[in-house]
Amino acid sequence: MKIAVAADHGGFALKTQLAEYLADRGHQVLDVGTHSADRTDYPIWGSRAAHAVVDGEADLAVICCGSGIGISIAANKVPGARCVVCTEPYSAQMGRRHNNANMLALGERFVGPDMARAIVDAFLDTGFDGGRHEGRVALLERLDAGERL
Ligand code: RB5
């Protein structure tokens, strides 16, 4: 798969490690930045990764900041992005199975490298269940379009 990665300074080290891990797993990595540990702003990088996914440049994205929270909020502002913040693998599986999540956010200050890799594995190795969840994801897409439910 083609996986976009992104981070602010708070997630830069984790993003760097995960980009290498993803490449080792045979994925094509699209690193949209940031490209140094200099202080920067997470909305830039979360939204850039989200656009990469929504525009079809990447299949999925893994994004990192200090907590995973800010960058996930930014990603979810982009219509079509469904980003889940996870601190353990089961949430990543459920995000894929029920919500067809297309982005995973991780907090470098919350999860160590081994846990981060386990969460990434769970996210990438799990598919959408479909069925009764299809309609709910379709409702999310209507919200993306600005509709009130
Ligand atoms: C940066 O200090 C930090 O606020 C950011 O990486 C993230 O945790 C925000 O949600």
Task: Describe this protein's structure.
By secondary structure, the chain is α/β, with parallel strands linked by helices. The chain has one domain (2-144): Sugar-phosphate isomerase, RpiB/LacA/LacB (Ribose 5-phosphate Isomerase B, Chain: A). Helices cover 47% and strands 16% of the residues. The chain contains six helices and five strands. A five-stranded parallel beta sheet has the order 2-1-3-5-4, with helices on both faces. Strand 1, helix 1 and strand 2 (28-31) form a beta-alpha-beta unit. Helix 1 packs across helix 5. The chain is globular. It starts with a strand and ends in a 5-residue tail after the last helix. The mean pLDDT is 98.
How are the SSEs placed, and which strands pair?
Blueprint: E1 2-7, H1 12-24, E2 28-31, H2 42-54, E3 60-65, H3 69-76, E4 83-85, H4 89-99, E5 103-107, H5 113-124, H6 132-144
Parallel strand pairs: 1-2, 1-3, 3-5, 4-5
Helix pairs in contact: 1-5, 2-3, 4-5
Distance separating the two termini: 34 Å
Number of strands: 5
Derived structural class: alpha/beta
CATH topology: Ribose 5-phosphate Isomerase B, Chain: A
The unique ligands bound to this protein are: D-ribose
Q: Summary?
A:
Helix content is about 45%, strand content about 15%. The relative contact order is 0.17. The site of D-ribose has 8 residues, from helix 3.
Task: Provide the descriptors you would attach to this structure in a database record.
149 residues, alpha/beta, Ribose 5-phosphate Isomerase B, Chain: A, five-stranded parallel beta sheet, 5 strands, globular, binds D-ribose
